[in-house]
Amino acid sequence: MIDDRPLHLVPEGDLPRGVYRDASGHYVRVKIGAGNEYTAQYRPPEGTTVAQVLAWQERQRQRLRDEREHAERLQPRRGTLEADVAEYLKDRRLSKSHKKRRTQQLAWWCAQPAALEAPTISVEDLARDPAKAKRAGRLGLVPRAMLDPKRLRQILADAFAPIDPDADPTEFAGTSNHYRMALFHLFTVLDEDRPGAANPVRNVKIRPTRDAEPHGQDMRIVAEILRHIPSRFGYSGAVTEQRIAVLAWIHITPIELRRVDPPRHFHDVPDATREDILDGAITLTIPPRHKGQRQKLPAAHTIPLNPWGVAAMRAFAANPAAWGPFSGSSLNKVFKRACRRAQAALAKRGIAVDLSETTVYHLKHSLTTAAQLASPGLLDRQGRIQPAPGVQASVSHQQNRTTRFYTEAAVDPLVRLANAATTRYLEALFAQPLTPAPAVRLVTVKDRGSNL
Fold first, then answer.
1. Region 316-330: what's the mean pLDDT?
2. HEC readout, the chain
3. Average pLDDT, the chain
4. Among 169, 227, 442, 443, which Cα is nearest to 344's?
5. From CA 188, how far away is CA 166, in angstroms rounded?
6. What is the value of pTM for the model shown?
7. How far is CA 385 from CA 290, 299, 377, 380, 408, in A?
8. How far apart are CA 399 and CA 384, in angstroms?
9. Percent residues over pLDDT 90 in the chain
10. Which residues contact 227 (CB under 8 A, 6 or more apart)?
11. Who has greater pLDDT, 373 or 125?
12. CA atoms of 171 and 165, how far apart (whole Å)
């Protein structure tokens, strides 16, 4: 039976469920769901009948049910990319800065449309409109094991395509590779206890960059920077100076330096002569970095030290406070201060050089560049020996890294040869005055199109 009575004529005890009366008149409310998280209400105008209120309530209930169903469809279920991203970000091995970067990169992946040939959401678009990350049909709702490598390649190709491929096909390649690595690392961490687990990102190739181009500073400029490290600010500054000196004169990264234990890894010969050092008498064993999913543990490798590396390592070994973990940001902060001072000092001597983009990581690049110039064709961009094709073929290895796995446990004669050549090159270099035009230009982050 249709109730055509106006609300104001209905006794309070006979009002339909969800209809209330207060000092301002009547108001109507509809609630659904556990906890009443979906609610609608309004104040009907005077003269509204009970039938009209009941019809409004039914329409609102259906609307709220549709909204709840749509929201549930958008929620990531267990095993989807978004759910696994949340699990990955709980990994305690992620530093604060690393976690922040990975959160942004993986959120960008999850927001992408899952359909092939669908338009790609750029990093800038997602930052301007975060609501895009919650749309239906996004990649984050796809089970991680079912990600399509073809779609992953499309997303990277569209989002990080070079502006002018003919002029620079490697533009934004570094950034593309970093976003690829974010997704790749997600799989390696979550599946590290599952031998042979499928990782579709393996089928997404790394884009080539301008890695072949020297990207370091003239070692005379590096020496000038080291002279301006503000160790005079106290004991901690001296510790930082010792760490930076090791990074400048030895082929080692900050992460590897944190693992160095001088009593076990530094093999010193106190009375060694220059000829002994050139012959590889003093060495450093660099502990392996356990990175990613590996079937075998990587081997440590031992390298000979040049005279500057020997001096730096002796000072480092003599100060136990310098050993072990340290803050990379603090190290780089002191280094940047030294760069500003060195740049000002060089400018007074008429030598114009821009050190604003120089970081601690460029120290390794600079030493490697010097080693490459001293030993053409013998070293790669990491400062490692490139095995001759004949040697590689004789042990049936298809990749250089496989050959290195077996040859770097001890100091290879070629490594000693390259170290001696680098030492002689640096001795000749330091004998020449620094000219206004540095010998090697620094390739900056902007040049490389990378967010390293």
1. 89
2. CCCCCEHHHCCHHHCCCCEEEECCEEEEEEEECHHHCEEEEECCCCCCEHHHHHHHHHHHHHHHHHHHHHHHHHCCCCCEHHHHHHHHCCCCCCCHHHHHHHHHHHHHHHHCECCCCCCCCCHHHHHHCHHHHHCCCEHHHCEHHHCCHHHHHHHHHHHCCCCCCCCCCCCCHHHHHHHHHHHHHHHHHHCCCCCCCCCHHHHCCCCCCCCCCCCCCCHHHHHHHHHCCCHHHCHHHHHHHHHHHHHHHCCCCHHHHHCCCHHHHEECCCCCCHHHHHCCCCEEEECCCCCCCCCCCCCCEEEECCHHHHHHHHHHHCCHHHCCCCCHHHHHHHHHHHHHHHHHHHHHCCCCCCCCCCCCHHHHHHHHHHHHHHCCCCECCCCCECCCHHHHHHCCCCCHHHHHHHHCCCCCHHHHHHHHHHHHHHHHHHCCCCCCCCCCCCCCHHHHCCCC
3. 81
4. 227
5. 35
6. 0.54
7. 21, 16, 9, 6, 9
8. 14
9. 36
10. 342
11. 125
12. 8
Tell me: the pLDDT tens digits for 78-109?
Answer: 778 998 999 899 887 787 888 899 999 999 99
Q: Identify the structural domains of the chain with CATH numbers, from first to last.
A: 7-74 (no CATH), 81-203 (no CATH), 219-448 (1.10.443)
For 338, the token pair is: 């030294």
Q: How many residues does the chain have?
A: 452
Query: Does 409 have pLDDT greater than 80?
Result: no
**Longest CA span, the chain:** 110
